[in-house]
């Protein structure tokens, strides 16, 4: 019998992709946040994991408030049940640096990252051994809702496609970050669920990905002319990469730079084919 998984935020980038990637392996039920809070708790008794993929502008931009913390509200609903919860947080809770592991110095420097770290502590207290916290680097992929102007987060790939539509590519020189394709992320989530994993894990490629190389992959099928310009001084580039050794020791997943390259080139083909 397939494990029952609930995905909250079915129209989000991560949520919509996870539903597509996991539906062959699990019994997936999807809800928006408000509908989930109103469903009968009896319907949750046989659920294995709940994954929240939604948020709100108040949580992202303002100081912490319980009413704006969707993950906290979800945890209250399932506190006395047996299901586990997957909390998607951010590498932004760390101090900038290289090879950051789960014990590295925490230094959130914006309301979003401060709120994420605060929520981590609350969920660990409330759910104890039923919480899986995933500190994610940058996810790369295409959302079927990518033209939605109401997006709370603008990711690297959002900025790339927005700029390329304007005929611009930034000269990233020696800048780097840590990326993971949404396809690989779905594979990792599948393994974690099947192994009934809980605890705190970095989810990343685990190495430097130079932005110039990434942009070349994403721009591969672009036949339009564009200008390469220097990054404005007002846009500070934060270089970092996460150590994913703890995660890789827990699950058997090949996580290689060549896989990211293939997925980025596939994204380029899909995006520019529609132009």
Order of helices and strands: EHEHEHHEHEEHEEEHEEHEHH
Rough outline: globular
Q: What composes the largest sheet?
A: 6 strands, parallel
Structural class: alpha/beta
Radius of gyration: 19 Å
Mean pLDDT: 92
Q: What is the helix fraction of residues, given as a range? A: 25-40%
Q: In DSSP terms, counting alpha (H) and pi (I) runs of 4 or more, how many helices?
A: 10
Find the count of extended strands (DSSP E, 2+ residues). 12
Strand order of the largest sheet: 2-1-3-4-5-10
Strand percentage lies at 15-25%
Q: What is the terminal-to-terminal distance?
A: 43 Å
Question: Low-confidence spans: pLDDT under 50, at least 5 residues?
Answer: none
Describe this structure in words.
This protein has ten helices and twelve strands. With 275 residues, the protein is of the alpha/beta class. The mean pLDDT is 92. The strands form four sheets. The protein has a six-stranded parallel β-sheet with strand order 2-1-3-4-5-10, sandwiched between helices. A two-stranded parallel sheet has the order 6-9.
Quick rundown:
This protein is α/β, with parallel strands linked by helices. The chain has helices at residues 13-22, 33-38, 57-61, 70-78, 111-127, 156-165, 182-194, 211-218, 245-250, 257-273, and strands at 4-8, 27-31, 47-52, 84-90, 131-136, 138-140, 168-171, 176-177, 179-181, 199-203, 209-210, 227-230. Helix 1 crosses helix 7 and helix 4 (70-78) runs parallel beside helix 5 (111-127).
